[in-house]
């Protein structure tokens, strides 16, 4: 099957939404658990993980053009050792996709459909995102071109509407407890930047692969600015209560009122952000199918789309049944997620690049 290619702009949109699609709602809650009013400083440290991931994955992509990390890991590690890398990425993508589905469902239940059975929402969610994943990354990219500019406009409007409720006292004192809480607060945002590991799968789908590093670095800047804006807004409006809300940004949007004229304008803004979550889930579904198809040496990822969707659907149901509510999700984000993300986005690609560089240098020396 002929695979449609992404433009650099579509690549930027997809990678941005793949990080911000669901995290934008709870990004302020996690660093605030440790850094308190200094959560915004944690957000400024977090991009180190993303930049590291981009520099390494784009270097590997330049050495092995038109290959995903699954394919060039076989060239570097050999047939058997590469199985460890393949199974790890497949497992991480499976878990991430289940967690993303659960977060979207929790958000929809919280803001609009508290009485609707979760399984009904999950079926509708997978129907929409599954169709997008089936049709391919180009369709997801075109959807992103529609949704992302609206997201930017709405984010700016929310910024303007909340200014009058800001209290700068909530940001003081700066670095009251030193550097350690700020670094601990940066762990989860760093994990989200680690989701840029998707570039290791998406770079071969670019119509201009030479622009992958530049586009990815633009992505990191956009993600960091969005995160910084969101954390500052939530902290300035909600103060020490930020860490008490499961979705602080949704609470900020609900707090907006324009005098006595307009109140509760969240039904206008929140659906766009939820649609960004749909776009993120569709991207992760597609990349999971792409990963499995490359592991199984299948050229057309559509062959495995339906089985992958069914397995992730069951996995999400199991997650909701065995770990209901936000507490289990918080445990995952605080403990498992930063480590898993570091291994997938930084450790494995760095090891692959280091081994490949050593082998290349050894060949040159002996030739």
Structure at a glance:
The chain is an all-alpha fold and 367 residues long. The chain is built from 16 helices and two strands.
| Spatial ordering of strands, largest sheet | 1-2
Distance between the termini: 40 Å
Classify the beta-strand content into a percent band: under 5%
Task: Return the string of H and E elements.
Answer: HHHHHHHHHHHHHEEHHH
Main sheet makeup:
2 strands, antiparallel
How many DSSP-defined strands?
2
How would you explain this protein's 3D organization?
- The longest helix is centred in the last third of the chain and has 40 residues.
- Helices cover 75% and strands 1% of the residues.
- The protein has a two-stranded antiparallel sheet with strand order 1-2.
- The protein is mostly helical.
Supply the key terms:
single chain; 367 residues; mainly alpha; two-stranded antiparallel sheet; 16 helices; 75% helix
List strands and helices in order, with pairings.
Blueprint: H1 8-26, H2 29-35, H3 39-45, H4 47-63, H5 69-77, H6 82-111, H7 118-135, H8 137-162, H9 179-185, H10 187-193, H11 199-202, H12 212-238, H13 248-255, E1 257-258, E2 262-263, H14 266-295, H15 305-322, H16 327-366
Helix pairs in contact: 1-8, 1-12, 1-14, 2-3, 2-9, 3-9, 3-12, 4-10, 4-12, 4-16, 5-6, 5-16, 6-7, 6-14, 6-15, 6-16, 7-14, 7-15, 8-14, 10-16, 12-13
């Amino acid at each position: 099957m002929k695979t449609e290619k992404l433009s650099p702009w579509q690549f930027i949109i997809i990678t941005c939404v793949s990080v911000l699609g669901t995290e934008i709602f709870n990004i302020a809650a996690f660093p605030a658990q440790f850094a308190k009013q200094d959560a915004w400083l944690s957000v400024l440290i977090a991009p180190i993980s993303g930049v590291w991931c981009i520099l390494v994955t784009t270097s590997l992509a330049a050495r092995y053009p038109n290959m995903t990390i699954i394919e060039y890991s076989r060239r570097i590690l050999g047939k058997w050792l590469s199985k460890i890398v393949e199974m790890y990425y497949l497992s991480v993508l499976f878990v991430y996709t289940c967690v993303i589905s659960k977060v979207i469902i929790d958000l929809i239940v919280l803001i609009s459909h508290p009485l609707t059975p979760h399984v009904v929402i999950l079926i509708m969610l997978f129907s929409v995102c599954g169709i997008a994943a089936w049709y391919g990354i180009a369709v997801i990219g075109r959807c992103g071109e529609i949704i992302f500019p609206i997201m930017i406009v709405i984010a700016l409007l929310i910024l303007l509407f909340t200014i009058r409720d800001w209290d700068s006292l909530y940001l003081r004192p700066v670095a009251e407890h030193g550097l350690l809480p700020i670094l601990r607060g940066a762990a989860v945002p760093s994990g989200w930047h680690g989701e840029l590991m998707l570039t290791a799968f998406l770079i071969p789908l670019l119509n201009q692969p030479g622009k992958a590093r530049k586009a990815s670095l633009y992505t990191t800047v956009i993600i960091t600015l969005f995160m910084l804006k969101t954390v500052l807004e939530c902290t300035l409006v909600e103060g020490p209560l930020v860490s008490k809300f499961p979705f602080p940004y949704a609470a900020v949007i609900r707090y907006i009122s324009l005098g006595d004229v307009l109140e509760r304008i969240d039904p206008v803004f929140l659906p766009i952000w939820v649609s960004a979550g749909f776009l993120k889930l569709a991207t992760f579904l597609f990349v999971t199918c792409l990963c499995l198809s490359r592991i199984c040496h299948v050229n057309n990822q559509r062959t495995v789309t339906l089985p992958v969707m069914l397995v992730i659907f069951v996995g999400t149901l199991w997650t909701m049944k065995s770990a209901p509510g936000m507490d289990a999700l918080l445990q995952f984000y605080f403990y498992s997620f930063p480590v898993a993300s570091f291994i997938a986005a930084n450790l494995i690609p760095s090891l692959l690049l280091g081994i490949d560089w050593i082998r290349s240098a050894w060949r040159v020396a002996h030739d």
